[in-house]
Amino acid sequence: MSTASSDTATDSAVPDGPQERSRRLRRLTLPDGVRPYLAPLLLYGVTKLVGLIVFAWLLESADEYQKKNPRFGGGAHWWDVLSTWDGWWYLQVAEKGYDPRPLEQLAPGGLFTVKQNSVAFFPLYPGLIRGVSEITGLGLYGSGILVSVLASFVAAAGIYAVVSTLAGVRAGTIAAGLWAVAPGAGVEWAVYSESVFVAIASWCCYCVMKRRWVAAGLLAFVAGLNRPTSAALIGAVGLAAIVTLARRESRREHGVSGPLYAMFAAPLGLLTYITWVGLSMGDLTAYFTLQREGWAHYFDFGSYTLDVLGNTAVGRHNYLFAFSVPDLLGVQLVLALPFLIALMLRKKPPLVLVAYTLASVITVLGTQQMFGNTGRYLLPVFPLLLAPAAALSRLKWPSLAVFFGTAAIASGWYAHYVIFELGIP
Question: At what angle do helices 257-265 and 230-246 cross, to 10 degrees?
Fold first, then answer.
């Protein structure tokens, strides 16, 4: 007894060796829950950075951006391009807030019949820009880029969480990398709201998968303050909640209050903003009128998409918002969608992912908007990465390194330069 006690006391008095101190330090600085995300975030960040560098090189080589209006794709430096077009509107809202006057009619005969207004851009992202600027002292441009970059890493982590749950850690890591090189990925590190939305949407879907209904409802609510296309996410959360409530077994396992909360909380953000716009502008349908007559964006059941596909098939451009190179890439993406959806469905993903994907795709293809931006509009549909990531996970890392290296370089053109310089993002 005494000897054992003495040995124990002696062992506890011996100072830790270098390996033990290093192990404890790692535990203090890197929680176990964070470690799985290091590889996907590193792959995402490096891949994205390579694409951005290639984009900058292409802009400087073309030497066209300095000749353009700073609001419409130009600027004094290449990085200024990242805050043009929609980015300009977001910075205006962040700086000045909204001015929701009644719709101002334009002279008849033109493409647009009402004057464009900043209320078409939802408040979450410009609000984050303004908040970060006030806290950090950064300018609005720097704050916008910072918000987008940080949100993009949160989004990559969310994509990893969802895909790794369904197809394994390796597939989840690859999915995060694929999102960095997806068509339209150029807006992930620009003054655009996509990164914030995908960060919310991916973690919202993950919460539904894990039956964390309160968190899912809150995230869907917040998503409704970011983009109108949040309707697809809100509908998916609501459908998953309804199905859970309809099954006796799931009601017993998960209860009733959580799904009910998620179902009713999810749409409140979107409905609140749309209603506020309508009341402020004196017309409850003002937001939809503004989108249709101020931006020529509206749901037409796919008529515009079919028009673009028909024209492109015969080498013509007799349609609205025609941009040859972005449109050709958009056509190729649309033709790939049935295959990607079929592969995703073969993996039998949870209902929330299926509903979110199908609703998002129908919204994109069924709406008249800039067809060349199809890749950007589909960027939030991250469940489409499930099957390609699972297939690529069978490759060894040397092969994957070649794949991602090539894709990262190419993405500087097709995912960045094409949409910002050869079209209108």
Answer: 160
